[in-house]
Design a protein that fits this description.
heterotrimer; A alpha/beta (280); B mainly alpha (172); C alpha/beta (575); B: 172 residues; mainly alpha; 4 helices; elongated; C: 575 residues; eight-stranded mixed beta sheet; globular
Amino acid sequence: MDATPMSEALTPRDYKSDIKPVWCPGCGDYSVLGSITTALAELQLPPEDVAVVSGIGCSSRIPAYANTYGFHGVHGRSLALGTGLKVARPELTVIVASGDGDGFSIGGNHFLHACRRNIDLTYIVMDNRVYGMTKGQPSPTTEPDWAESALAPGGTGLRPFHPLVIALASGASFVARAFSGDLLGTAALIAEAIQHEGFSFVEILSPCVTFRPDEREWRKQVHPSPVEPTDDPARAARRIMTDDGFNTGILFSGERSAYAPARPEGPVVEPAYFEAEFAV
Amino acid sequence: MNEPKKITVEQMLARAFAIEREAQARYADLADQMLVHNNQELAELFGKLAEIEGKHATKIKQRAAGAELPYISPLAYRWPGSEAPENVDISVAHYLMTPHHALKMALAGEQRAVDYFEDMAKVAADGAAKALAEEFVEEEREHVALVKAWLAKYPEPPAGWDEDDDPPMLQE
Amino acid sequence: MTTSATERTSVVLAINGSGGAGAITAGSMLLKAAARAGLYGLLTRAVGPQIRGGEAVAILRLATAPVECAADRCDLQIAIDWMNADRFAAELNLGPESLVIGDAAAEEVPEAIAESGARIEALPIAELAKSVKGGRPNMVALGIAAAAIGLPAEALEAEIVETLSSKGEAAIEASKAALAAGMEAASGIDFAAKLTPPDKKEKRWIISGNEAAGLGAIRGGVRFVAAYPITPATEILEWMSPALVKAGGSLVQAEDELASINMIIGASYGGVPALTATSGPGLALMLESVGLAIASEVPVVIVDVMRGGPSTGIPTKSEQSDLNMALNGCHGDAPHIVVAPTSVADCLFTTQWAVHLAEAMQVPTIVLSDQFLGQAKAVIDRPADVAFIANRKVETAPAEGYRRYAITADGVSPMTVPGIAGGQYTADGLEHNPRGTPSTAAGDHASQLDKRADKLTKFDYGQHWAEIDGDGPLAVITWGSSTAPAREAIEIARAQGIDVKLVALRLLAPSRPDAFAEALKGVERALVVEQTHSGQFLRHLRAEYDLPGEITHLCRPGPLNFRAQDVLAAIKEAK
């Protein structure tokens, strides 16, 4: 840590763009941006070799605020965008950023298959258990009795979706939970996730101070996971299913090989090579 | 916190510099947030705090007298709290917040800095490093006093300061 | 067959069978043997709804010159059996001049076939196959077909050796013997058709439109494909998957079409030319993200191999009814490119051109192929090499303050790709300013809309926007797979002294009103030919172009493709 001279090091600030975020002050996503830029500085990755890809929602505004390459796509498809980019350009560091609505509702299918493919990218979901951009409707992770939305008076009555367990069941090889209020702790998890080879999923509890002011209380509820990460998905799933939902840290880290597209056996051929197949 | 047992003058300067530079960045972020949310008074206040921290950082760099300070990685070097001592907590920010709230945040940060350098003085490698830590303690105490005086001009606003007469806006 | 055979320029043969009889295999072998002998041809097939064991027919049109569409009538049908064969009656179009050879031991000829008035003969196909150890009826049928058009046994034997090489010597010998038995049995039947291959033997290919599209894509520079399997586009993916690996690219089988389109947008954003292939239902799912590629100016190519619609429609049959969706399916004002191949061989050129257009203008390009073009296998002359390749304007050394969506004279802004230092930007589906920052300002919206429209209209498409041929007061205006029957009908009409001009649009969007007006100079009447129910193409023409006063409309939905006689009749009506 002390080895790099200050004049040569990239600092978190170097990974921030000059575009000012539109998030509400107090929003956890500000800290997540800080965590991402801190993790990138920690790894000293050249900003031009990093791409942050997102969908739609408050959290998905994040690419423009980073001084990396970015893609702000359509609702729910960020993992597909990121997958295409990573397969086409495997040398890049690809971070996909999403929210609970974008990632688990409209984009749910891509979540399953990205985990299953175990492609080497980092998936950060800022979970605030509410749709913020559309003024506060329940999301797949909202508690069944949260009754503040006109869309679901009296609450949804539905069990919340359990993204970490679903990630495990679908084959993700790195699963972590973080809390935005712990900027450096979250940054450390993101740095680990980036370095992990394979699909790494970091669910960040990120309070929505506007539509879920109750989430300011999360600060008092979160605590580091009392046990070391496991490489046994069944054990990890059991722990996650039975914990209080506020355990933070790496909850599972396995060694399944990451998705690797087939490579040519010999030298790369020119298009003319394929003509022989059709010639009579 | 992975603090070496004995820290040198150079390391002490590097830590002090990191504290001020990070605090400057944090205040600048908050100034931007307030600017975007049309809270001009707070944008100016946070801007001013950022400027002050920036001056502190510059002063420390000058103290180093051209010596190349080591880079304090925010992750490899874990601060005693959750972040560098003078980093105020952005999660308590509010778009309608008043100078009272901002200065209270700042006061807490300065107090943490005092505590931090008091701890550093105990692990200084030599007399020079110890003297430097003590000097920083003194300086941070002065900052605490300054912020306190500043805060006195802004009593706590009555309840309801965070009331907004408009509904939230639909975006995407 | 008999020596009374007359010289023909085109003969249509069909071999049908069921339950794994191998009719399609026999048809493919015959096509290849005919091509080796110097003939041209086109192989289409029709199948029942079963995955395995269903009824199938291979329809071969063999000819002394290139052929690109179904012939008017089937000359010879060889039925290995009659199971559900009436299902194919409409496709085959038998008539009194046709000959149908069935198995002597088989049940009665289906009514739909008997009613055609075709001459029906019987040969002991099954029995002949049984007479050879390991002999199979499809090889007997192949022998009959070869004898019918005068192909020598050696040509077929070479094909047997190649096709059955993995099955061992015994299988090869058995097939050869069954082939010989079929040829021998056919000698007693009178069939008046003989094809003499042309002397000149240019280098020939056998290729399907789907394979041609895949090869065109790779020639154009595509090195990333993501797609979801769908009939009738899957063969593009199956061909491209191993080919891309060899060419240093890759193919990802996506979880759905929403993923496919976004994966290719991601890859192309990374600087790698990318393509997906699908059919109508898949394109419908993709359209939201086509809008994203338009707004964020990321080039991608989408090949839609059209099938009957709406909904699941008729997945195994052709129709031109995705035109409306391809042209107008996006929300917002969303200029993009739509092109369509005019023949099986043209699937190669048009797809390659599509890659070039997409990359040059940083815009999604939809290629409207269809089931007929995609799945037909044609014997063609080796397609010419064309220079169109992906040539994206990339800013490799961005200056301070680089603006990704800068307004430029031609509307195309140099783009950076990840890895280029100082070129970082965020591509966005939100409206943005020249730098890429989201903006709701009226001025930014107007200037970015202008830019995205201008870059398409200012581009020089050269002569490739349409195939224009001949002259006359009547023009046949058509597109896609309706082009070949129109072309053939026009040739017949000319031979009969009727001058007709062909205008087949390859570029469907953006419209070229000036070029179109120039092409129609002197034309007094037009016959518009399209394979839809609602007249999508004519509506499009009326909206975008000035048409001559008198319009005749030959408009029919799938699944049957037009035949030259259909168009000829319409030409005579319009004359």
